[in-house]
Structure formats: C-alpha cells, structure tokens
Design brief:
The complex is a heterodimer. Chain A is mainly alpha-helical. Chain A contains nine helices and no strands. In chain A, helix 1 runs parallel beside helix 8, helix 4 packs across helix 7 and helix 7 packs antiparallel against helix 8. In chain B, strands 1-2 form a two-stranded antiparallel sheet. Chain B contains ten helices and two strands. Chain B has one domain. Helix content of chain B is about 60%, strand content about 0%. The interface between A and B is large, with 54 and 56 residues.
C-alpha cells in the first residue's frame, strides 16, 4: 500500500506529467484560461487515463505472449481512440449529466500524448496491473493540479499592459509556465 | 516550378510548425535538451512525416471519408514502429535518450495535421515535398532550441565543450523550466522579426489542423459550447 501511494504521489508532484515530463502540453496551454474548463479537462483526462491503462495493460500481456510486442504503438493508439469514442457514446446515453460535464473534452483527448504516454510508460517501467492503475490515476491528478494552478496564474495575466508587444499571448504564457515548472522542481527528491 | 518551391520552403520559416503554427509542442520541449537530441527527434519525425504523406496521398481515393482519421493513424503508427525499430538497432544511444517520445510521434499533431490538411487533397509529389519542408522546419526549430539549451545549460555544442570547465553552466536550461523559457523567448523573437508584425497566436479551435475532422464539427450543440469556452483561450 505504501508503495502504491509513493508511486501516485511521486507522479503527481515530482515527475508531474505536464511540468516535468512535457506530456499533454497542448491542452495545458490551450484549455487553461478559465478555471472551470481547466477542471473539466483535467477530470476527463483522469477518467480516460485510468480507463486506457485498464484496457491496454492486459492487451500488452497478450501481445507479449504472442511475441509481437513491437505492435504496441499501433494497437495502443487504436484501443485508446476507440475507447474514447465508446465512452463518449455510453456516457451520452446512460449518464447524460457526466457527459455534459466531460463530453466537450473527450474528443480532444484521443490524440493527447499524455494518455498514450502513460500507457506506454507503465509497460516500459514494468509495473504490475494495480501499480499501473495507480500510476495512471496519479498522472491524471497531477495533470489536473497543473491545469488548476496554471488557470489561476493565467487569470492574473489578463491585463497585459506593460508587456512588450512581441511577448503578448503565447510567449508570455510559456514563460509563466516556466516559472510554475520551476516551483515544482522544489519537490524533487521528495520520494526515493 | 515556383509553386513546388513554395510548398517546399513554406514550412521552414513562414509556416514553421513549431514556432509559428505552435504544433508539436510536447516533443519540441521534451527532446530539445541538446542539439543532437533535438536534431535526432526532428529527423525521426521527418522520416515518418514524409512516408506517411506519400502513402496517404497514394491512398486518398481508396480511404472512405468517414473513417479517414483512424486510417491515417494506422499508417502513421506503422511508420513510427519502423522508425523505432531502426533507431533501436542502429542508433541505440539516441533511442535511449529520446525514449518515450519515439512512440509518441504517433500523436504528434504536425503529422496528423499535414495528412488531413495537405496529403489527402494533393498529388504524391507535392505531398512528399510538403513532408520534407515541414519536417525540415520541425528539425530546424528543435535543433535551434536544443543548441540554445545545450549552450547555456551544459556549456557545450553538439557535445564539444565551448566554455564548459571554465565557467559553471546554468543547469536549469537543461531542465523543464528552461524548456518553457527558451520556447517562449523563441516564439517572441519570431513575433518580433516576422514581416506581418506581432500576430497574436492562440490555441483555438479554428487554428487546429484537425478542425475539419473533429467530431465537434458535426455536433453543433457541443461545438457552440467549446467555442464559448475556447473563445478566450
């Protein structure tokens, strides 16, 4: 149990997907301007990451059994893409409330490198099924945390007065992200 | 001839995928820790981009419109696997330092974006040229970012010591914050020197290369919602 919590906490704080490993930068920069959309996107990512891990880990064991592990990339991306479609349809039909909250973000997640990244990372690191699920959950929570913090930072950036013209917009956002990422470096060495 | 030249050169600077179109940000930030890594990642993605552009241009009349995106993904993932195996066999050191980001070339939006925006409506030759141009632009941007980060962060360039050993380099440039910082400064520099002044770029739905294929386009209700949320993003 302690091991599982360590895995989860270290991927949330030390090896944060967005701020330390550069996975999922597009949604991090694109959807973080408003707090509610940041929370929605983060929640959708947690949901899809755990589901994708739950589905791809057993599939890899089958591939490995047939000694065709090199098909990993092709199979994983197809599984994730169809899974997201399926989840969207199921939510729309049976849990409309949840679909309303997360549905907007689901199509945007299919080709998100954080989702494919966490599934491949679980295999590469040789984690067990339960460890993989906790790793995915932690990666998702870390993504949500980075999104929420960054949404807070960006709401203060709206007034761009005094910023040189060429720095307005994207460059300013990136430099703020650098400072947020710098603060997360303070967590390094927290877990061994 | 002039048109062919334009297709080839527009990806270098005018429509540079990383610095102007702001695509492929994840690999650009993650693999530009040194000039060699940056160039290696750029070349690997270029190889996939050229091959997938050619194959998709060849298959554009066969692939049914409705399932084109999954088909593109399969083609791209196939080439990524080939590149991954080749790198593992012949350049194991690069394979090791790029690590996770080689399989992640599959979800690099530059490649899917060019398939959707260019290769599925142009000839094979034009698509190949487009792939070369965009790929070289991507490689160039990653190489420059890598060189800057390596110079300040390790005091070396392409592995050769410039001032390393005499002055302590600023290691932060090799780490995550340095990546965001250098990228921000480069985009600002491109803004400053580009001919059309400081065009404010953003990450909105309209500028997404996959807009036409996105499920949001068909779902009117959802799209309005996204646009409301994304309007300011």
């Amino acid at each position: 149990m302690v091991g599982l919590i360590t895995i989860m906490m270290s991927v949330i704080l030390v090896d944060n997907f967005v701020l330390a490993q550069f996975l999922g930068i597009c949604p991090f920069l694109g959807v973080s301007k408003k707090l509610d959309s940041a929370v929605g996107m983060g929640a959708a990512v947690i949901f899809v990451m755990v589901l994708a891990t739950a589905a791809t880990w057993p599939i890899y064991q089958v591939l490995d059994g047939f000694e065709i592990g090199y098909l990993q990339t092709v199979v994983f991306i197809l599984v994730i893409a169809s899974l997201v479609q399926l989840v969207e349809m199921v939510l729309k039909k049976y849990v409309p409330a949840l679909h309303k909250a997360l549905g907007v973000y689901l199509p945007l997640i299919t080709t998100n490198c954080a989702v494919l990244g966490v599934t491949i990372m679980n295999i590469n690191d040789g984690l067990t099924y339960v460890e993989s699920l906790f790793n995915a959950l932690g990666a998702g929570i870390g993504f949500l945390l980075a999104m929420v913090l960054f949404a807070g930072v960006r709401s203060k950036l709206e007034n761009e007065a005094g910023v040189p013209d060429c720095f307005k917009g994207v460059p300013l956002t990136l430099i703020s992200a650098a400072i947020l990422s710098l603060s997360f470096m303070g967590f390094s060495g927290l877990f061994q | 001839m002039g048109k062919k030249m334009t297709i080839l050169t527009k990806g270098l600077i005018k429509e540079n995928p990383v610095l102007v179109l702001l695509l492929g940000t994840c690999p650009a930030l993650a693999t530009s820790t040194s000039s060699i890594n940056g160039l290696g990642m750029g070349l690997a993605a270029t190889a996939v981009l050229i091959c997938s552009n050619i194959v998709i241009a060849l298959l554009k009349n066969i692939i049914p419109d409705k399932v084109r995106i999954p088909c593109y993904i399969v083609v791209i993932a196939g080439f990524v696997t080939i590149v991954q195996l080749l790198l593992q066999a012949y350049v194991p050191s690069l394979y090791k330092s790029l690590g996770l980001f080689i399989p992640l070339i599959v979800v690099n939006c530059i490649i899917l974006g060019r398939a959707e925006m260019f290769a599925n409506k142009n000839s094979v030759a034009d698509s190949a040229l487009d792939g070369i141009g965009m790929g070289v632009g991507f490689t160039l941007a990653l190489g420059v970012m890598g060189a800057i980060r390596e110079f300040f962060g390790a005091g070396t360039l392409f592995g050769f010591a410039i001032y390393a050993g005499h002055i302590d380099p600023m290691g932060i440039f090799m780490l995550a914050p340095g990546g965001f910082f250098v990228y921000g400064i480069l985009v600002a520099a491109v803004n400053h020197f580009s001919a059309n002044g400081t065009k404010k770029k953003s990450f909105s739905c309209d500028e997404c290369p996959l807009f036409n294929a996105c499920t949001l386009k068909e779902d009117e209700e959802l799209r309005v919602k996204v646009e409301q949320k994304g309007a300011e993003a």
